[in-house]
What does this fold into?
Amino acid sequence: MGQTTTRQAHISWRSPKTERRATPPYGDGLFAAQKIAKGELLAVWGGVIVSTAELRSLPQYVQDRAIQVEEDHHLCSGQIDDDADCVNHSCNPNAGLQGQITLVAMRDIEPGEEICFDYAMSDGDPSYYLPCQCGDSQCRHAATGNDWMLPELQERYKGYFSPYLQRRIDAQHHR
Ligand SMILES: [Zn+2]
It folds into this structure.
């Protein structure tokens, strides 16, 4: 431990148009600090890749900020407390995935709005369960690893699912 150099405390990127704010009682969230146009890049996540079994053995706070990127592969940032990892779930989100590790605006976002995506776009592990109280009229009261199967979500989030989930959806429709 002879190193005294302070390393940079992030491995992901977030748009400079965003800022991190506390969202009690659920930790922190990412908010628009200025107007953001539909299609703009909001975050690009980095980290280490672990299997589902490895992820389940990690501390809860690491699991809470991980994202599934492939069948049995998850991206997580371990001990690093990264602003870009603080994007909360909503059942009526303003952001969606573009590929596995990139978050984009699904519509124009006004300053002060919290940036959220629907974890149905990324989480496909059947054991995944997150209670939701987002308060939206479309709230499902939970985000689960089976939500990608819901036809209305497949329609609403077309083009915004993680590629491995889009492959599952395509396979479902070509059976
Ligand atoms: Zn909800």
Notes: Residues 163-173 form the longest helix (11 residues). The chain has a mean pLDDT of 93. Residues 13-173 form a domain with the Beta-clip-like fold (CATH 2.170.270.10).
